[in-house]
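Good day; I would like, with your permission, to put a structural problem before you. What I wish to show you is a protein chain and, alongside it, a tokenised description of its three-dimensional fold. Please examine both parts with care and let me know of anything in them that strikes you as inconsistent. Thank you for your consideration; the sequence and its tokens are set out here:

***
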Amino acid sequence: MSVKFILGVDGGNSKTECAIHEIGGSRRLGARGVGSNHEMLGFETAGLAMRAVVADVLKQGGISPADIAAACFAMAGMDVPPDRDGIRTHMVEPLGLSCPFVICNDAFAGFRAGSSRGIGMCVSVGTGITFCGKNQAGEVLQFEQPCPLGMDALIRNALMSEYLGIGPKCGFTSAYLQALGLETLEEFFLSLYAQSRKFAKAIEPMRIIEARRAVLHPTMFNDPATCALLQKFAWSLADVLGGLGGRLRFGSSEFDLVLSGSILTRGRHPALNDTLIASIAKSFSGARAVVVDGLPVDGALLMAADLLRPGASITA
């Protein structure tokens, strides 16, 4: 086949998406499968999951690995150099690609999906929190937190203040408890001791992730308690981004500030997004805020296309 394609993979905790786009054409194919984070599954199992999605796309188009001109693998859990080595050896090389490819953290896919130049900073808030950035000199930085602990702690403290009568009532209380499978704040209070008390009902971690949606629901946009805790969370994110921007020496130069991840792109609570953007603008006058509308896998495709340009780097 004379037609060539670029390949992008967004491998996350709960899902893996792959897309292939024809170079110089409009043909695009995609597929979705289970998560492929090696931290959770191990390299071998994660590799099987990722390669199954890639194989699905190749089969759809009758495309062989030799037809791929460049590829990007944006993978959750790609945090330090040994992760890249393991992903390359156990997950990517078995695909049999002969083209240049880049392996990066999945946050960079969201970053590139929102940044037209790929220069700036990104915070991705979903199941976890990842900060990343790239400056004009090509320097790349990345910092990850395992989960939005700050947000969960703020929610817990707000609910406990309501339960103890020392704080305002939270508009999201009923919906949040329902998402956890609980009925009362007393049950929530007892659940905090579930690891060591048989009488307390334990809460599944995935339920906590789902319950965050109650806090970000549009009906909470004007709830004082919700706005207060999300503003605090935004300030904590801004502190990290401020340090990242300083390390990348952005100063007053123009760059993209990309907001990615489901909490920032689907929730879009003004107290969170607007506070974060305003806080960064105070320190970096050239920051241009972008909330990602497209899919992270689109960013992976753009990063693959970047490899076909003169002087392109194959590390990120």
